[in-house]
Amino acid sequence: MIGNTVLDALSRSQTFRDAVSYGIHNEEVHIGCIKYRNEYELNGESAIKIDDIQSLTCNELYGYDVGQEPILPICEAGENENEEPYVSFSVAPDTDSYEMPSWQEGLIHEIIHHVTGASDPSGDSNIELGPTEILARRVAQELGWSVPDFKGYAEPEREAHLRLRNLNALRQAAMRHEKNERAFFERLGTISDRYEASPDFTEYSAVSNIGYGFIQQHDFPGVAIDENLQDVNQIQLYHGAPYIFTFGDVDRHN
């Protein structure tokens, strides 16, 4: 769903295209250089004590409320040890879910960090959203994504919304693969170990048996970008179902 979201924003949002163009021409991060992660970490405040992500079950995700979830997504725009940009974000919720527009807006938020160099307000700011979130919300408005309104970046209501969104997204992703529950959490554990997808989303393959690793290559449509392009209008888009990882049934994705 990462690829679909980027494709949609590049196709239909002038604000996002302007942000991408800014990155190209002002020595910020080129969108063609960004890689993507679904990285999770154990929640030290959770009542669930697990050794690793691989040992989780779907039932455990539904047994606890926000604040008690056993794992949390790392949502950030960062750089790896080679100073290469990446975006880490939660797994995608169901496409028709209440959480999806907020998830898409949040993903765009992290990408805008990279391509514009804009930052967020201080962690205790309850009175301003900051330039990155304002731009991301403008993109959401242009694309018709309905997201809740908040006054401040660190407003408690906003933070509670994001926590619930991320928990429900994980629940929905797990339930989409309930017949492959063990494989799902093993896959999530592997991906959480800083595994990155390229900007054109061709590095994640369908896995019929998680024990054999990444075995079957699929072309994950997304954004085919030459990082040397100097014109945002030259970015080539192509259609399909770009998802961060899949299992044997290729019509059921995350």
From TrEMBL:
This is T3SS secreted effector NleC-like protein. Pfam families: Peptidase_M85 (PF13678). It comes from Escherichia coli. InterPro entries: Peptidase_M85.
